[in-house]
Amino acid sequence: MRYTLPILTILATITSTLSAQQIKISGKIIDAVESTPIGFATVSLLKQDSTFIKGVTSNDDGLFAIPQVAKDTHLLSVSFLGYETQVIELSKSEKDITVSDIALHPASIALNDITVTANSIIHKIDKDVILPTAAQLKSSISGISLLQNLMLPRVIIDQVNNVIKTSDGSEIQLRINGVIVSYSEILALIPQDIIRVEFHDNPGLRYGDVAAVLDFITRRKSSGGSINAELMNNPFVGFGNNSFNAKVNHRKSEFSFNSNEWDRDLDFTRNSRQSFIFPDKEIHRNRVGEAIPFKTRGINNNLNYSLQESGKYFFNAALRQFYRNTPNGFDDEKSTYYTGDSEPVNVYIHSAYRTNAPMLDLYFQRDLKNQQLIIVNVIGKYTYSKTEYKFQESRNDVLYTDINNLTKSDRYALVAEGIYEKTFGTGSKLSTGLKQTQTYTESTYSGSSEAQVNVNQSETYLYAEYQLKKGKFNTSLGVGATRMYYSVQGSKTEKYLFRPTLRMTYTINDAAYIKYNGIVYNRVPSEGDLNNVEQEIDSLQIRRGNPNLRPFMTYQNTLWGGYKKGIFDFNLWMRYRYINANIANDIFFEDGKFINQNNNQRAFHNLIGELRIQVQPIKDHLTFSFTPGIARFINKGNNYLHTYTRWYYNSDMTANYKKWIFNAFLANSFHYFEGETLYLNESWQNVSLGYKTDRFSISAGVINPFTKEWKSGSRVFSALVPMSSQVTSTSISKMPYLKLSYNVNFGRQYKSADKKIDNSDI
């Protein structure tokens, strides 16, 4: 024991001496033009001979810190894609060094001369930050094209339906600098304007219950503007996607206009088998269909104005309009079936709908001292919709069943939201918010039933979330409280719900990470279901609303992780979802008719797992990915139990050489089973080859080149009315298309402000 004290004293002296020989270097990185912080910049500490010592990445606020640095003369190298690299000489110091704002200037050299030396993907607790490489930007012709080249896990680009979704069919929310946008606005982005893509694969409470968010962070111009156009059309059938985008900047202001028009004029054939099990008899029908047109046309217009002063405020006003007219719906049918006698029965089903939805979105963000932020967002939206449905049965040209239903709806919605955020020096963050949603819907039903239904819905949502980072762990704990109220024809329902969430990220090393998300959220019945209206479907079936539907709770656990080594990149993703009292369709027999009505069922279970394997044999020029997956469904209804398992896959390939670009996508169908209905979704393939210059690009492609006949359909496992239906088409099999794009970009660039929230999806 007598030697213990001297030994401890010696160790303490050595530790103190070593500590005294080390210092910490910290600072902040900003944009030289706008003076805004640059997050995720690469900061490298070098010896005087440029030998690398260690490196870090700046956080969202542009701050960085390099601890345990020897007292010596060093070089500090700061770089970020699209900016000129800044190298600063640091003299030997006895104290910690704090570097004043390091200003990076936008790069004036060509993109193919810029090299990203850091990891191109930064994993954070709520998102992955993807820094596109110079080769990826150079080979892309739009924001959608860049997304194809990035090959993000679970992200599927459906260019036929103009949506970006997850591999299980959930639609992904799209944003540009935090502002929610449409598919066409992503399509109009000039790749060279994109600084990074933030993939919120683990979104926090502020985003609600969306599956994922893709946010494209772009540079904003201080003057000049841009004009973009893309035309994608088929020369033989009615298929077109055409967009136009214009933007003008003047000092602190930005004006932009975006318009996207799409049209479809295709032929489909529907065949079905349906049985009706009466108490005393059975009727079986095999309907053989004929080709019938599907026609739809839509346009999405967006007029936007924003005003910002960096570090102080950001105001955004957007006027949007969505219009769609479908004179011939996808569910249309022209078929023939035979009964016990020799005379065939002709069936004709026709549906049509039209929607017009203008919306005004006002957003204000105020930056306060000490890394505090206040956001206010107010949205008003009006939606008019009209739906027509006709069902006819005839024998020998004699009409004996004639059903005509017409539904008109006027919906008024107002959303007001406020958010407060505080970021602490340790990297921790506190976020709280209050959101009020109020909707009022007037619906008129005519035809087989005459009624007018008024639905008044209100939702108040309050949440708080705290994010803490400690070592390799990044944890976020949040809780939300919701008051839900709705009134249908004077019948009122009120309910209070809590929504806890837990998110965790563990960075194992530079090559591997693991994430977890546990969340509880609620959903209310749709306005279309909350009525007491009956409408005939055919001569034997009636659709009936249900004003007694209750909100239901969803409990979801998601676990995923990744490992990257050399040319290989692996990503494993698993999710278990349990819904208590889920809403699904019931069919029962009453007064000689079969009644279709949505009811709260016992439970719904869904387990999905998939493994994405990506290989890059030629860096920046050739990349493959293959994703096999499995989905398991368990539907526990009030009077049934159904289970189903589906194996699925998708694969991607992208290649580029000089100005030539090749893309290929192949996937079988993801089947979704809900209640007693199994949805047999379509399989898709898309192959294209293009040529790109700085401003102009042209490409040719084929949709479903390996499919002789496009197929989709559904199966209903009802004990009373079992049914199977298959829709086929040759219009979108081996369907060629030509795509032309032209981009003009002028004016000086600088980094834009970010809009933090959005409530446009109301």
Automatic annotation (TrEMBL):
<feature type="domain" description="Outer membrane protein beta-barrel">
    <location>
        <begin position="384"/>
        <end position="713"/>
    </location>
</feature>
<dbReference type="Pfam" id="PF14905">
    <property type="entry name" value="OMP_b-brl_3"/>
</dbReference>
<dbReference type="Pfam" id="PF13620">
    <property type="entry name" value="CarboxypepD_reg"/>
</dbReference>
<dbReference type="InterPro" id="IPR008969">
    <property type="entry name" value="CarboxyPept-like_regulatory"/>
</dbReference>
<protein>
    <submittedName>
        <fullName>Outer membrane beta-barrel protein</fullName>
    </submittedName>
</protein>
<dbReference type="InterPro" id="IPR041700">
    <property type="entry name" value="OMP_b-brl_3"/>
</dbReference>
